[in-house]
Amino acid sequence: MQSLESKKTTLVEEVRRRRTFAIISHPDAGKTTLTEKLLLYGGAIHLAGSVKARRAARHATSDWMEMERERGISVTSSALSFEYQGFRINLLDTPGHQDFSEDTYRTLVAADSAVMLLDNRKGVEEQTRKLFEVCRLRRIPIFTFVNKCDRIGVPPLQLLDDVEADLGIRCSPVTWPVSDGTSFLGVFDRSTGALSLFEKGSDHGQTRAPEEVAGLDDPRVEELLGSVARDRLAEEIELLDAAGAPFDAEALLRGELSPVFFGSALTNFGVEPFLDHFLGHAPPPAPRTASGKAGDREVVPTDEAFSGFVFKIQANMDPKHRDRVAFIRVCSGRFEAGASVLNTRSGKPVRLARPQQFFAQEREAVTSAWPGDVVGIHDRGSLRIGDTLVDGLELEFEGIPSFSPEHFARVQVPDPLRRKHLDKGLLQLSEEGAVQVFFTDGATGPAPVVGVVGPLQFDVLLHRLEHEYGIVARLEPMPFRDARWVTGPESELRRVARGHDCSLVRDRSGRHLLLFRNEWVRQSVEGREKDLKFDRMAPA
Ligand code: G4P
Fold first, then answer.
1. Cα of 216 to ligand 1 centre, how many Å?
2. pLDDT (tens digit per residue) in 350-361
């Protein structure tokens, strides 16, 4: 039996060494490649290429059912864990491409920090910007990795200026690229003055790139770079030092400054210096706010009582197997397989049944987990997104916010007698977080409108309505691509909604949303209607 004191020491130690983060990026910036290289450098895989091959197989088919048949992949990639230099790293998957959805945003609520991955030719792109906003609202530290430096891109200084202007975050380069394009040789580490020069392997980055470390005045550097490139690098470094933006760990933790790293995930250049710095500066699990009988309180990860929340539910598409996997982020105490805990919302006990974690590409049963970890448990439909699970505590974490959708459609059933079934199906699927449901004022009462972040969710909705609720529904897409919850006098809201490019709907709690034809319309309405309050996340 472990003594109480040693149990506490274990908990403190397990929390201290955990790093739970997500990569935010636009499709094609290299997230799959970087993930794989982090696993390679973390020692979790020995040959890069397998995750990628599987992604390619998945990507090749736009048929959603095909993707579901390969469900193992998406489940596996919900969170990957590996050990590196004494750290336990939990890398949360933020679905991109066609499966970009609210799940992508919700995942960020489970992360303690984020890595913003940029393509060096494109800088900040649309999806990155949206994900960045969510990270900023949560005030989590954001690291930046500028990828693809093996190709000539936007000059690094200009790229950083663009990021600062676009996102309003200070950038502090920690590593700096040595040349670019085919002459990209490595990175200079401003914090140590060391130059990591890499050698391109002949195996397309499947294994670690051989690396040599030298100082800027090492004669080998001039030999390798030539005196012109060496002097240019020295000048750039001087310029950076003079320009300021020194690294500030406190500002990073407040989400005000982003340390920037350059590299190439494809050839592995710069991946290891990034990983080492990241682990040194990324925070371990932080306290989280919860409400209890005695008001709000901070739940500290090293509190011994277990607490966690559900941030994602993966439904099983096979109607013969209705169980689902609920992904729990552990917030405090020790998670123990098989334990019975309390679901604060329903007041009912929940058994932590058949818990699983994902190591590199293998799914493994787990017996215990610690704050920062993500565990998938089997659920027969009793859990919802945002549910708090506790053992011996009375509290509820702040709910997971709803994020404004970007695609909308009216839902219709040809048989009016099925309308009740439709309402039930929509209610359950919205509680699970698969879609959001709103209502317009139709001629025969409120008509349902579904809203999603990624259009693939529409296919999921139709499939699930048919297979789980026996409803063959039809979607009639609406021409809106942006929305905000809006607060103000109803007459004013109706006046704005009479404009050509807007529409007014209500959510289940009766809160109003304005739908806009596009982002431009939204911005102009927001700019004009100063008396209304617009929110991207559903107000409490
Ligand atoms: P994603 O998950 O963010 O969508 O991106 P992914 O890793 O799949 O990478 C997108 C494309 O960018 C891939 O090329 C990949 O090889 C390439 N890429 C990733 N990192 C780098 C890098 O550091 N340098 C260069 N030059 N390219 C990089 P693809 O042609 O679409 O796929 P593939 O044929 O290479 O698999």
1. 31
2. 999 888 877 655
Q: How far is the CA of 29 from the centre of ligand 1 (A)?
A: 7
Q: Which residues of 168-190 are buried (b: 16+ CB within 10 A; e: fewer)?
A: ebbbbbbbbbbbbeeebbbbbbb
Q: What is the pLDDT of residue 360?
A: 57
35 C-beta closer than 6 A to ligand 1: no
Could you identify the atom of ligand 1 that is nearest to the CA of residue 267? 23
Q: What is the pLDDT of residue 75?
A: 39
Q: How many angstroms separate the Cα of 335 from the Cα of each of 370, 390, 482?
A: 6, 10, 39
pLDDT single digits (tens) 213-259: 777 788 877 887 788 888 888 899 998 888 877 899 999 999 999 99
> Domain boundary at 257, 281, 305, which?
281
| Residue to mutate, 266, 268, 269, 271, ligand 1, most ligand atoms under 8 Å from C-beta | 266
Atom from ligand 1 closest to the CA of residue 265: 23
Domain at 193, CATH number = 3.40.50.300
Give domain status of residue 387, yes or no.
Answer: yes
Tell whether 316 and 342 lie within a shared domain. yes
Residue to mutate, 28, 54, 73, 269, ligand 1, most ligand atoms under 8 Å from C-beta: 28
Q: pLDDT tens across 159-204, in order?
A: 999 999 999 999 999 999 988 888 788 899 998 888 888 776 666 6
pLDDT for residue 340: 95
- Give the best-scoring range by mean pLDDT among 283-287, 355-359, 459-463: 283-287
pTM for the whole structure: 0.87
With helix as H, strand as E and coil as C, how does 62-78 read? Answer: CCHHHHHHCHHHHHHCC
Cα separation, 117 vs 32, in Å, equals 11
Domain that holds residue 523: 407-535
Cα of 360 vs centre of ligand 1, distance in Å, is 20
Does the CB atom of residue 383 touch ligand 1 within 6 A? no
- Angle of the 102-109 helix axis to the 126-138 helix axis, nearest 10: 30
Query: Which of ligand 1's atoms lies nearest the C-alpha of 56?
Result: 36
Ligand 1 atom 26: the closest Cα is on which residue?
148
Q: In the structure, what pLDDT confidence band is assigned to residue 58 with cuts at 50, 70 and 90?
A: very low
For tokens 């799940």, the residue is 103
371 in a structural domain: yes
